[in-house]
């Protein structure tokens, strides 16, 4: 087989990654808008948002298999010339997302006091976090079906539609949330309500798009219980992988809460910036998932190795660039979120630490994309379990850190070096072999 040309691969990567970049950034921008708006309500409100949004991020993160498995199965079917089959499997993933979202929403609403209580935050902060969680939970019905719909479209090598949908929702979220937070005096509950409204906006739009594609192929959009169950079981290793991933974030948030409201509020600002960068860097991983899934369906293993070499260079370049931007803007970027002098001083050293971690993070995300595109989910689950087992005692030692700026910087240094670094090492050990292919 003729070796794929580097320029051709670059065009393919850019055609997928650039729209995916906008799509992926739109969601954290939506969250960042909430942080900015709530930050101007007060520090306790921002701290409450940190806990409430962490719980929701945990749930959505555990369920990210909905996007990954539908990308892999749809992409492989498309690569093998079985478009109708790929769409038939994809729509069942969307039904699974909606049903799972409804069940999880009920659990979060019913057990909100107990869940928030696990963070051991101050009473005012805990009350605000509980309020945010209760009003945000119904949006999971929409958000989880959106994840699966994005996977279907990525498998079809269409990242432009998710870009349009998520960007529109992010733009809509700002006036809706601002009106509810300030105009209706709902505070942090207004941020949660506005986000849920925009999530349903995205879900309805994407359902319409996918159903139209199904009809064009003569495929039924009706739920199939057997296929829904199969989708859930197929994604189980990724559920376990995501559970350990999100558990690392939760335990880090728990440690931040133990270091005081100012440190926790600063942690929320840094988590928002980290997530924004992570979703931006993950655009390359999305391109890797889709292209690898299609290449495997076509049986083009040589193309995969060429693609990997090129994407590694892209990841290091973008990671370095984002890290430099973080360092250069460290003295004024926190002003977007707060005017509290104490909180501003807490954030600056930690932003520099986060910037230094970006090249390593970029490689980690792209390695993840390779193995997800190859549907090597069992290894991903095992590797994440081992890394978390190493990270847990390391982050527990963070309880010895002082409150304030150096405590916050220390938290992020441990997260970056131990957790992200451990993930990068474990994934590289797999990718350097041919077993995952």
Q: What does this entry look like structurally?
A:
With 437 residues, the chain is mostly helical. It contains 17 helices and no strands. Helix 2 packs antiparallel against helix 11 (236-258). It is globular and about 60 Å long. The two termini are 17 Å apart. The model has no long low-confidence stretch (mean pLDDT 86).
**Strand share of the residues?**
under 5%
Unreliable sequence segments: none
Ends apart, CA distance between termini? 17 Å
- From N to C, what is the helix and strand string? HHHHHHHHHHHHHHHHH
Essential attributes:
84% helix
Give a brief rundown of this model.
This protein is mainly alpha-helical. 84% of the residues lie in helices and 0% in strands.
Question: Secondary-structure blueprint of this entry?
Answer:
Blueprint: H1 6-39, H2 43-62, H3 65-79, H4 83-110, H5 112-117, H6 123-136, H7 139-155, H8 160-183, H9 188-216, H10 225-234, H11 236-258, H12 261-298, H13 301-328, H14 341-356, H15 358-373, H16 377-396, H17 405-431
